[in-house]
Amino acid sequence: MESTGPADGKIRICHIITLLELGGAQQNTLYTSAHLDRRRFQVSLVAGPGGLLDAEARSIPFMETHWVPELVREVSPARDFVALLKLTALLRRLKPDLVHTHSSKAGILGRWAAHLAGVGAVVHTVHGFGFHARMPFLKREWFRTLETWTAPLTTRFLAVSEANLECAVRSGIFPPERASLIRSGVELSSFRNGAKAGSLRTDLGISPDAPVVGMVACLKPQKAPLDFVKVAEEVSRRVPGAHFLLVGDGELRGAVEEEVARRSLAGRFHLLGWRRDIPSLFKNLDLLALTSLWEGLPRVVPEAMAASLPVVATRVDGTPEAVAEGETGFLVEPGDVRAMAEKISWLLQHSEEARSMGSKGRERVEEFDIDLMVRRLEALYEELVRSEADPRPRDGRFQPGKSSGRKA
After folding, report:
1. CA distance 168 to 144
2. Which of 170, 286, 356, 405 has the smallest number of Cβ neighbours within 10 A?
3. What is the DSSP letter of 321?
4. Which tens digits make up the pLDDT trace of 38-93?
């Protein structure tokens, strides 16, 4: 689609993301693109094709959508170089006032392309880093080095969790004064009001009074879905009538299906694939579980809190910033199947305490309101573009403003 240029002096924003899969970073990017004030902003989006949310992106009115086939998650030097060239040419044509990148691959290539295209302001959101402690050392250090080399091209870093900010500072990627905290947003009203349980339990053959534990996650190593299957087996011994819903899909689906069969969980472990009716699905749950090995800050956690569900999750990265231990749920160490099974079983056997935790979670979730997130981004975009356009002398390249590891 050809760029039509700015209208009425609007600020031109271009989002770049690797793939529009069904995940928190992608959903937040699309929501932001659709809900920025059209009187002040003109929006374009660049992504690699083939994501589940591609059609949703195309349906957003007044937004230009551009696809770069070479922009893929896997590392491929030749293909990545072509993607860089195409992104640079596209940005030179679009002439955005500000580029906002998301995810690791698009974050690296998009920021270099913005630099080569002469874009004035560049924002990168850290939704979790592409490197983590469970990686082989050399691979981890290479990814960390790429982030460090790209950091000087970035006007402002955003992060969804304090943990990610601290990780970046500790790793030498950027100093705290160049970053702001803007929480990953959730449509709170969708989870608090109006959703109905529907016929899910009937469709799956689950009795109305059976306890149900759910997990919503992409079936990839980061989310450790096989641990959830093991947890289900442990909980089944303590709470024989319990059922388990795993919502999501991905590379480990086959392994999950094999593990479910091996542990004789057929009939009580339900693998639902991708679903878009999460608010209604949550009406059928007694609690949410999450077995992740690392995270940014999982969007599904505040969604569950808004739906008055207690949460049992692994104590990784930003998750403890949402889940208050012993108040809105429980936290366990990643990989500790037994501890998670014990906490889940306790909640299923103590329904009054579980309801109390769910109610407290609902009260604590206001900072994750998605419209608040959009308003903060609007203010940030205007601040950075005004700063870039200001002809007065400034100290240094970066204009971090007043935020430093705090909400912008």
Report:
1. 9
2. 170
3. G
4. 999 999 999 999 999 999 999 999 999 999 999 998 888 999 999 999 999 999 99
